[in-house]
Design brief:
This protein has about 170 residues and is mostly helical. It has one domain. About 65% of the residues lie in helices and about 0% in strands. It contains five helices and no strands. Helix 2 packs antiparallel against helix 3 and helix 2 crosses helix 4. The radius of gyration is 19 Å and the shape is elongated.
């Protein structure tokens, strides 16, 4: 049984499974047109920027506003962690431009959106925020846009490998 994947201009290493090559796929691929490469780079940079902005807002809310979230048990440390992770993921995404980094950043944004909605609608860890709180609606919009852009980028990065892979057993 061969571990070669038929993808235009790309052969999978014999020692690695196809899914590992997929996760390590880098944008922009050599088989793409210049316009697609430039658009992908733009989408990745904007997605990384929105991820960093989400991290920055969480750090700001954690410690720089009149009533910092750092004083809220459980929520405070989570805001600090979310702020740090958001900025680190943005840097990782820009530096590597690999599918795994895009997926991590997209997952971060999706989880951020879900946590914000749950926190406002139902509360979490004994704390409930409000839609009227500073930065809530703006952050929600930016995180949704970032998640959508990063998920589109992940699909574009994964498509050549997934489309070129034969899913039938031989």
């Amino acid at each position: 049984m061969s571990s070669h994947v038929d993808v235009p201009s790309k052969a999978v290493s014999a020692g690695r499974p196809w899914w590992l090559d997929l996760l390590l796929a880098r944008s922009p691929g050599p088989w793409r047109s210049r316009i697609v490469r430039v658009l992908m780079l733009l989408v990745l940079v904007v997605g990384a920027g929105l991820t960093a902005y989400s991290g920055y807002i969480h750090l700001y809310l954690w410690g720089r506003q009149p009533y910092p979230y750092s004083a809220i048990p459980t929520i405070g440390p989570l805001f600090l962690l979310q702020g740090i992770v958001g900025i680190l993921l943005a840097v990782l995404l820009v530096v590597t431009r690999r599918l795994f980094a895009v997926l991590l950043a997209a997952g971060f944004m999706v989880v951020s959106v879900a946590a914000l909605v749950i926190d406002v609608q139902f509360g979490m860890f004994g704390f409930q925020d409000s839609w009227a709180a500073p930065y809530v609606t703006g952050t929600l919009r930016y995180e949704i846009v970032g998640a959508v852009l990063l998920l589109i980028a992940a699909g574009v990065l994964a498509w050549p490998t997934v489309a070129g892979r034969s899913w039938r057993r031989r």
